[in-house]
Design brief:
The protein has a single domain (about 5-145), classed as Rossmann fold. It is built from 5 helices and 5 strands; from the N terminus they run E-H-E-H-E-H-E-H-H-E. It is an alpha/beta fold. Helix 1 (about 15-30) links the parallel strand 1 and strand 2.
């Protein structure tokens, strides 16, 4: 049924809740899991600097993304599922677009995401990658909210 589960990870508690749910599903169905982290390289630099600082910052973001994936991979492995891990990079694009593209490219059967469950003005101001994924996905999407 859900042989391939895509799990976006951003290092937040919310994404770990989504990971744990995906692992539970994968264990019960014998599914494969792919963790994906997106490094957004959209950096505004209003100065006329050489860009060295920007390059260092981008490399730092990449290193942070690798660390987030490694931590999530270890958490899944401790629970009995060994995931694949993918680090994607975007220059100012929406994370949702890359999640959807990865789901299509990998032929995912399910996307499992943690969500903050924001409503009203908070959602309007902050946007919602989860909402965009739900609207545009061609496969089922499971949104998981943390227990309060």
């Amino acid at each position: 049924m859900y042989g391939k589960i895509l799990v976006p990870i951003d290092g937040s508690e919310t994404s770990i809740v989504g990971l744990n749910e995906a692992v539970a599903i994968a264990k019960s169905l014998g599914s494969r899991i792919r963790l994906v982290h997106i490094v957004n390289e959209f950096i505004l630099d209003g100065t006329y600097s050489s860009g060295t600082y920007g390059e260092d910052l981008i490399e730092s973001l990449r290193d942070g993304g690798k660390a987030i994936l490694k931590k999530a991979e270890a958490a899944a492995t401790r629970q009995g599922v060994t995931p694949e891990c993918i680090l994607l990079e975007s220059i100012g694009g929406a994370a949702a677009d890359l999640i959807l593209a990865q789901a299509k490219e990998w032929a995912a059967d399910l996307i499992v995401m943690g969500t903050h469950g924001r409503r009203g003005l908070a959602r309007v101001v902050m946007g919602s990658d989860a909402e965009e994924v739900v609207r545009a996905a061609t496969v089922p999407v499971l949104l998981v909210r943390p227990l309060k």
